[in-house]
Amino acid sequence: MKQKEGKISTYIVGEKVPHFKSLSGIEYKEVYSRSDWNGELPDPGKYPFTRGIHRDMYRGRLWTRRQQSGFGTPEESNERIKYLLRIGQTGINMDVDIATKSGLDPDYPLARADVGLQGTSLCTYEDMAALYKDIDLDQVSSTLIVQPPCSAIIMAQYLLLAKERKIPWEKLIGTIMNCALSQYVGANFQATTSFFPVDMSVKIGLDVMEYLVPHLPRWNIININAYNIRETGISAVQEAAFSMSLASDYIKELIKRGLDIDSFARRMAFFSAADIDLFEEVAKLRAMRRIWARMLKEKFGAKNEQSLRFRTAIQTAALPLTAQQPLNNIVRTTIQTLVAVLAGTQSIHTTGYDEAYSLPTEESHKLSIRTQQIIAYETKVVNSVDPLGGSYLVETLTDQIEEQIWELMKVIEDKGGFIQCFKEGWVEEEFNKARYQYAESIEIGEHPIVGVNIFREEDEEIKINIFKQAPEMQAKRIQYAQDYRKNRDQEPVKRALGRIYDLVKRKSEVNLFEPIMEAVKARATVQQIHDAMRQAADFVIPG
Amino acid sequence: MTSKRKRIITCKMGLDSHDNGLRIISKWLMDSGYEVIYSGLYNTPERIVKTAIEEGADAIGMSFLCGGHLFYADKLSKELRQKNMEHIKVIIGGVIPPDDVLKLKSLGIDAIFTPGTPKEKILGVIQSLLA
C-alpha cells in the first residue's frame, strides 16, 4: 500500500520512526543498563509506594471497570448504567450534561441546544432517583462527575436518595469529582469563570469536602482531574505537576479550616490520563505515587499511612484517537488500557473507538469493558505486582520524570500556588503554548499519527455505527423543567432559596452544603439554587 | 498591490466549552494573514451575526464538539438570511458524524472540517472560499 508521501518502503531503503523522544520530550537512550539505574526498590504497599499502593495489588483485587456514561433523560441514562453493569462494569461513573454542570435548567435559552448531549440532564431530586432506579446504592460504588458549585447539589441529591431508601451514609462508597478548576472542561479560563464566581466555586468545593469527611467515611471528597487538563496537549510532566500543585492548594485550605490532615487526605484522589507512550505513562504514575507520599509526609506531616497512598482513576487519553480509520482506535485504547494496568491504577475507563464521532454506542461501550476483561483474565499481567519495576529504562524514566515534576511544582509554588496561577492566566498561557505546539507537531509529522499524517487514506468511508440521541429528548426535558417548577409547593422553595441568598450575602464564610441540601429537599432546581447564590454575589451569567 | 485583509469571526455556540480546535484554527488563520475576531464561548447566532455586521466580517467559523451543530447551523443560516447577510461564508469544524456533514451542506454551510484535516487543506479551502 502506497504511503501518502509517495514513497514505497523497500527492503533496501528501510523504515525508521522520525525521532526517539518521549511524548513529553525526554530523549530515550538507545539502551538502558545497570549504569543508568542500580538502585533499591521499596516493596509495594510500603512508603513511598513506587511499586504500588497495596502489597498484592491486582492479585488481591482487580482494578474497577468504571466506564463513564450518561446522556439524554435520567431514564435513558439509567438503562445504560444497568446495561453496563450487566455486561461486566464493576463501578458506576455518571456524567451530567453541560447545562447541569453550568447550573442551568434545560429551558434556559443558551442551554436548550446542549441539553442531554454530553451527559445526563439532571435538574431535580426526582431526576437523581430516576437515574438510580433499580440500583442498590450500598452494593456498588459510584463516581459522580460534577464540579462545584453544582457538586453540592448533585451530592445532596444522592445523599437524600440514600436516606429515602434507608441506606446509612456510612455504607456509601464512591467519589464526587468536585474540583472547581480542573473538572468542568479542564481549567479553561473563560468557561470556569463565566457561570459562577470562581472563588465561590472553590469555596463551595471545600464546603462539600468538609461536610463529607465526617459523614461519609468511604466516600472520596475530590478527584483532581489531571485527565481533562492533559487533553489540551500539555505533557505528562505538566499533567502531574499541575494536578499535584492543585491538590496541595486544597490541602492547605482544608487545614486552614481546622481539619486534621489524616482525617481527609486518604479521601483525596486523582483522575489521570493514560496516553500512548507506554513507558513514560507508567513512569509518570510511579513518580506521582512517590511525590504524593513524600509531599504528604514531609510537607504536610501526615502520620497515617492511608494518607500517603496516591490513588487514581484512569481514562485512556482521547487526544491520540482519530476520526480517520476509527477501528484503529481499538488498538490504541487497548495499549493505553494495558499502560494503566502496568502503571497500577485503581480504576479504568477505556475510551470508545468512536470517540471522534459521538458518545459510545452500546457496542463500543461493551468493547471497552471486554478490553479490560481480556487484559485482566487472559494476559497474566495481573499475576505479579509492578511487573516493569526494576527495568533499567522504567526506573531511570521514573526518576527523570519525578525530578521534572518537582521542578515544575516549585515554579508553581513560587508563583503562589496553582489556584493563583490559574487566576492570573498563567495556566491558560501554558495550555495555549501546548495546544499550538501539539497541533504544529502533527502538521510537520514530528508527532506521527497513523491515518492522519502517515498512512492516510483519502476518501475513506466511515462504516462504524454512530450513537444517536432519541428524538424529542431535549423538548421533553425542557417541558419537564417548566412543569416541575410550576407544579410544586412554592413556599418551602422560596424559604430555602432565601436562606442561601442571605448566607451568601451576609455570612459568606458559612458552609453552604446543608442549606443547599435543604433547598434540594424543598424541590428547588439546579438553576434556582445557583441563581440564589449568583444574585447574592451580583454575578451575571451569559445569556 | 495589497488587497484588504479578510475578516473571520471564530466562535463557539451555546454551552459547548471545548476550545482546543477553535484556538488552534484561530491562530493558524492569524498566522496566514487573516484578521480574526476571536469571539470565544457562549455565543448565540443573533449576537454573532450582529458582530459580523458591525465588523464587516467576510466569514464566520464555528466549532462544535458536543453535538449542537445542526441546531446552530440552521439558526445561523436563517439569521444571516433575515439580516440580508448571505454573502458571509459559514465554516464549521469539529466532531461531526458523516451523515450530519451532508445535512450541513444542504443547509448551505460553505465548508465543513472534521478532525485530522491537515492545516494546508483547511487554509486552502478557506482561501478559495474568500477569494
Describe the structure.
- The complex is a heterodimer of chains A (543) and B (131).
- Chain A is of the alpha/beta class.
- Chain A has helices spanning 57-60, 74-86, 98-101, 125-131, 150-164, 189-194, 198-215, 226-230, 236-256, 261-264, 278-299, 328-343, 362-378, 392-414, 418-423, 426-443, 473-486, 490-506, 513-521, 526-536, and strands at 64-65, 68-69, 92-95, 142-145, 174-176, 219-220, 222-225, 268-274, 312-316, 347-349.
- Chain A has a 5-stranded parallel sheet. A 5-stranded parallel sheet of chain A has the order 2-3-4-5-6, covered by helices on one side.
- Chain A is globular and about 80 Å long.
- Chain B is globular, with a radius of gyration of 13 Å.
- Chain B contains 5 helices and 5 strands.
- In chain B, strands 2-1-3-4-5 form a 5-stranded parallel sheet, sandwiched between helices.
- The model of chain B has no long low-confidence stretch (mean pLDDT 95).
- The A-B interface holds A 98-99, 102, 104, 109-111, 113-114, 117-118, 184-185, 188, 190-191, 194, 231-233, 322-324, 356-358, 432, 435-436, 439, 443, 449, 451-453, 462, 466, 469, 542 and B 13-20, 23-24, 27-28, 40-42, 44, 66-68, 71-72, 95, 97-99, 114-116, 118-119.
